[in-house]
Structure formats: C-alpha cells, structure tokens
Design a protein that fits this description.
The complex is a heterodimer of chains A (about 100) and B (about 280).
Chain A (H helix, E strand, L loop, with lengths): L6 E3 L7 E7 L6 E7 L2 H18 L5 E7 L4 H15 L9
Parallel strand pairs in A: 3-4
Antiparallel strand pairs in A: 1-2, 2-4
Helix pairs in contact in A: 1-2
Chain B lengths: L1 E4 L3 H5 L8 E5 L9 H11 L9 E5 L8 H8 L6 E4 L5 H17 L8 E6 L2 H5 L1 H6 L4 E6 L1 H7 L12 H14 L2 E4 L8 H14 L3 E2 L7 H8 L3 H19 L5 E3 L2 E3 L1 H13 L6
Parallel strand pairs in B: 1-2, 2-3, 3-4, 4-5, 5-6, 6-7, 7-8
Antiparallel strand pairs in B: 9-10
Helix pairs in contact in B: 2-3, 9-10, 11-12
The chains are: A alpha+beta (about 100), B alpha/beta (about 280).
C-alpha cells in the first residue's frame, strides 16, 4: 500500500515533530529522510517507531520526511498516525 | 482545573508538574478546525503515556452537533479519563443522548459505566434555564461548569471584568449544583496578566459557592489554591468544632457553645467540609 496523496502533520515547535508523506511509484520501496535535534541520543528509537508504524499501516511505497524537535514517543506516534491517515484520505472528523 | 490545548505536545507533557487539581486536555475551542484529527490522535496517545502526577485528567470533546464530536468520543472514551467535559450542554435530554453513546462505546470495549464521569459545561442561555435537569438527573454528571465567554456571546453581551452579565447564570448554576450535591467550577479568567482581577473574581466565585475555578495559564494556579485552601486558623477552628461536636454528641447534646458562640448542625457541616478540604481527620 502507498499514500494516496501527499500529507503532513505536526509542527516545528519544541517537543514536536513534523512529518511529510507522499506516494512513490509502485514497488519502489520506502525513502526515509529523518533529522532530529536528538538524533544522537534517541535516533534508534525514532527510526524504530517510524518503521513499526509504517509496517502497521502496510506503507511500502512511501517517501517520508521527518523533522524532529525532541518529541516524546507518544507524540511521534500521534503525528505519524495523523500524517498516514491524512495521506490515505482517512480524515474522518476533520474539515478538509 | 488547568486548560491545555490538545494539539500542543509540549504543554501536554508538562501538564502534571504545575500542581493543578485537574487538567483538561482540550479538543474543542483550543484546537483549530483543520487540526482536530491531529489533536485527537495526540491526546489519545499521550493520555496514558504521560505521568500527570496527582492531577485528575479530563478531556473536553467537541459537541455532537459538530463533525468532530462522535470521533472524539470514539477515541477518548476507551481510555477512560477521570471525566469527559461536554461543551454547550443545553438540556437533560441532550445529556441522556450523550450518555447512551458513551455507554455503547464502553460496552464495545467491555468497560464499566460507572468509572468515568461527565462534566457538563453550561455556556448558553438555554443551558442556564435547564441547568437543574442537567445537574440532578444523572449519576455520572459529577460537576457542572460555567463557560463565561461562550455564555456572554450567546447572550449578545460583552464579558466585563465585574461579571455583571453572567452573575445570574453563575448563581443559578451554583444553586443547581448544590441541590444536586455535585461540584461546580467557575469559568476562566482570561487576562493572565491581571492577577488582582483573578484574585477578586476567584474570591467572589468562592463566596457564592463555586468549588473551584478553571485556569488557562499555570501562573494562575497558585492564586486559586491560595483562595480555596483553608487557612491554618480555619482548620484549627474547624477541628475544634468537630472535636467538641463528637464529645457533645456522645453525651447526647445536639447544640453547644464554643467561645460563647452557638454551634449547631450547619456549622458542624461547614467545619467538616473544611477538614475534608484540608485532608484532616478528627480522632
């Protein structure tokens, strides 16, 4: 599965993270561009969360850009979940 | 009760450190219309992952008449925060309908119907008119609150620092809460730089019967606590009254005097309330 549309969520504020997701051509795999102000300390954890959530939503052909400003795990999960759902057009309860 | 915008992770993760009695994660007015889904997801992920210490956690959902209300309930009810705060409550029928939806969600998740409570916000003239129904008919409604800004807007009047326009509403809401034996929380004081104004308004709210006050900035918490926390003198006096009451009751005496002042049941009740607030027991 891949995103239907390009979508983003989150902010550049401290303790937040911004995700941008867009579709890639079929069978081209994932392209991840992750940067974080705390990459040295928590980069492995961030990468793990992203990989797990993309697996959970079966997102294979996806281009993901993340700019992290020290978000905690629940924030990372929430922002990525929102970006994925927006990219899939599942925005129930949200004005477009 | 400290309001925290539901789409602000930094404020949510720090919410428990300020010592508020309860925090309110807001999915309603504090969240932009095009960020409702993001806030809902953030609050859902944060609520059980963050330590809010001794603060109770409430979530203000959007009204069911909006495109967001049902989705909010579907996301938040399974997490069973201390309470759901429902905005612009206007009638008992509306509360009954809301509780039906909440209980259906709880049934689907095998959750009890008696754990999470409901706070009804009274923010319209119709809500003020029907407040006793709202406050008294449902076991799960354990607090009502007044929303001053929305109420003045609904009344087509301007909110003034003296609160004149909402004074009737305040007193009517307090009376409904007292008759129903539930808590009643005053509206926020919007000017965070006016500490004297906050103190004045909180003292008035306490005087007319509100049991607490909502705040929009952690700076306001200390003033609220200062006003609502019983003083050492009040606690000592209350302790003496309750202790003397127990001694006199055991001797079959219902009314007695301390320092030449008559002590009867209402005064004892008030003293017991102060000791409960101060977490003091009389041995």
């Amino acid at each position: 599965m891949k995103p239907k549309i390009a979508a983003q969520s989150g902010t550049f504020e401290s303790s937040d993270v911004i995700f941008l997701i867009e579709p890639r051509p079929d069978n081209s795999g994932r392209k991840l561009e992750i940067s974080s102000t705390v990459m040295q300390q928590f980069g492995d954890n961030f990468n793990r969360i992203v990989a797990e959530m993309l697996d959970q939503y079966d997102m294979t052909d996806v281009h993901l850009i993340a700019k992290d400003k020290g978000a905690l795990e629940p924030t990372i999960k929430a922002r990525l979940e929102t970006a994925i759902k927006r990219s899939l057009g599942e925005q129930e309860g949200t004005l477009k | 009760m400290l309001y925290i915008p539901g789409n602000n992770p930094a404020m949510i993760q720090q919410g428990g450190v300020y010592g508020a009695d309860s925090i309110l994660l807001d999915l309603e007015d504090a969240v932009a219309l095009n960020q409702k889904d993001a806030a809902r997801s953030l609050v859902r992920n944060m609520i059980n992952a963050i330590d809010f210490y001794d603060s109770e956690v409430c979530v203000r959902v959007n009204h069911l008449s909006t495109p967001f209300g049902l989705a909010d309930l579907e996301a938040i009810v399974p997490l069973q925060p201390s309470a759901i705060r429902y905005p612009k409550t206007e009638s008992g029928e509306e509360v009954a309908e809301l509780l039906q939806i909440i209980e259906k969600i709880e049934d689907r998740h095998n959750l009890p119907h008696n754990k999470m409570t409901l706070h009804a916000m009274i923010e319209t003239a119709m809500g003020v008119q029907n407040v006793f129904d709202i406050a008294s008919k449902f076991d799960r409604v354990d607090a009502i609150t007044i929303g001053g800004q929305d109420l003045t807007a609904d009344m087509n009047i301007v909110y003034t620092p003296d609160g004149a326009g909402i004074d009737f509403a305040r007193k009517r809401i307090v009376m409904a809460a007292k008759a129903s034996h539930i808590d009643v929380i005053d509206t926020v004081f919007p000017d965070v730089n006016d500490e004297e104004g906050l103190r004045r308004e909180t003292e008035y709210a306490k005087k007319i019967g509100f049991t607490g006050k909502a705040v929009i900035n952690p700076r306001q918490i200390e003033i609220i606590h200062d006003i609502y926390t019983p003083t050492d003198e009040e606690i000592r006096k209350a302790y003496r009254i309750v202790k003397e009451f127990k001694i006199n009751s055991a001797a079959g005496i219902g009314v007695f005097a301390i320092d030449a002042k008559m002590i009867d049941a209402p005064i004892v009740t008030r003293a017991e309330y102060i000791l409960r607030l101060a977490n003091v027991t009389v041995g």
